[in-house]
Amino acid sequence: MSSLPLGRAVFRKSSHSEGANGCVETCVLDSRQLVRDSKNPEGGVLALDRGVWTALMSRIKRGAYDL
Fold first, then answer.
1. Closest alpha carbon to 20 in 42, 43, 37
2. Which listed residue, 8, 22, 26, 55, has the most CB atoms within 10 A of its CB?
3. R_g over Cα of the chain
4. What is the distance between the terminal CA atoms of the chain, rounded to a whole angstrom?
5. E-state strands within 1-67
6. Which residues of the chain have pLDDT under 70?
7. How far apart are CA 29 and CA 11, in angstroms?
8. Exposure of 67 by Cβ count < 10 A (0-12 exposed, 13-18 middle, 19+ buried)?
């Protein structure tokens, strides 16, 4: 797997997550959507192809997961 140039990544947290403890941050970098734990920004980063990210968000919005 190739390494990502994370120095260029600018992550953002949803405005819906203020004060919440279970937040993630996202970033678009090149052709990938990056996701990381906001409580551990130096930890791992999940990199998803844009199509996979779009499908995941669609399923979440339809209530496919117990979130």
1. 37
2. 26
3. 13
4. 30
5. 12-13, 24-29, 32-37, 46-49
6. 1-2, 17-22, 67
7. 10
8. exposed
